[in-house]
Write a structure and sequence with these properties.
The complex is a heterodimer of chains A (about 190) and B (about 110).
Chain A: E1 9-11, E2 19-20, H1 30-33, E3 35-37, H2 39-50, H3 55-62, H4 66-86, E4 90-92, E5 97-99, E6 103-106, E7 112-114, E8 133-135, H5 136-146, E9 162-164, E10 172-174, E11 180-181
Parallel strand pairs in A: 1-5, 3-4
Antiparallel strand pairs in A: 2-4, 6-7, 6-8, 9-10, 10-11
Helix pairs in contact in A: 2-3, 2-4, 3-4
Chain B: E1 2-7, E2 25-30, E3 36-40, H1 50-60, E4 65-68, H2 73-81, E5 85-88, H3 95-108
Classes of the chains: A alpha+beta (about 190), B alpha/beta (about 110).
Chain lengths: ~190, ~110
Amino acid sequence: MSPRIKIPRRVINAPVIQGFIPTTTPQEDISQEQVIIHLEEYEAIRLCDYEGLTQIEASECMGVSRPTFTRIYSQALRKVATAFVEGRPLHFMGGAGFFDTDWYHCQDCGCYFSSVTRPLPPDECPVCGSQQVKGLGEQFMMEDADNNLNTTCPKCGSRGSLERLKGNRPGHWCKKCGKKFPSNPKHEKL
Amino acid sequence: MKVAIASSGNDKQALLSEVLARSPWVVFYDTLTGALEFFPNPYSHNENEVGHEILQVLISRNVSLVISRRVGKKLKQWLDARQIQLAIFTEHLTIGQVLELLGRKSSKV
């Protein structure tokens, strides 16, 4: 029986940083002990604890049911607690989230901006006109996607045939059978 | 292009405001003509529906880019629906610095 496909979770605001490092952790230990917080988990904490929404309101924002939201939120809190108690670095990366607007970061002026030229990426920063722009979807999701290119396709079973969807769209597609998966198959408990 | 900038004051030394809808002033800047207007936000102290009210002002002035430090979730969804672009600065910039960046783009065109 094929696993149930996860509905991608809407992420309104991307994290402005890529993670936290404990002040006592030496630089060389960061990659070994880091706790990975997925984008949807970051968004759950932001909505509930920063924006002050109820879990029902927050679940509507993310486009998931209330019980699913509770699971994401409790998982996020557990990870934050792990990082705090064990003194490990936190890193925002991957997950089954997608940005409701494609966000881009200008390397020159440092602003984050939304794109209105979807599906085409913007040519330049709307503020300073610089062409040094980078998609936040790429920044946060590519690392996770690259780690899973050898994942088996849940439909046809071929190995190493999954590729990331073009643009900033979340998910993968199988080069062999052409099937598209809205979220990362790694997280679908194959 | 018409730009709306959330401002905490009515001069160029004022800092970029935290949230657009509740910012005390909104700066309207036309990148083509260079026209600059400091608009006192009459809805900043309203209890609710602030985002909707300020959105009507943005639409009536044909704004295509909004610059702020943060935007509420409702207003962001409405801006997306109306294809109004959003730019967020996490640093504490002054209005003068933002106008300088916008001028940099205008000079390239």
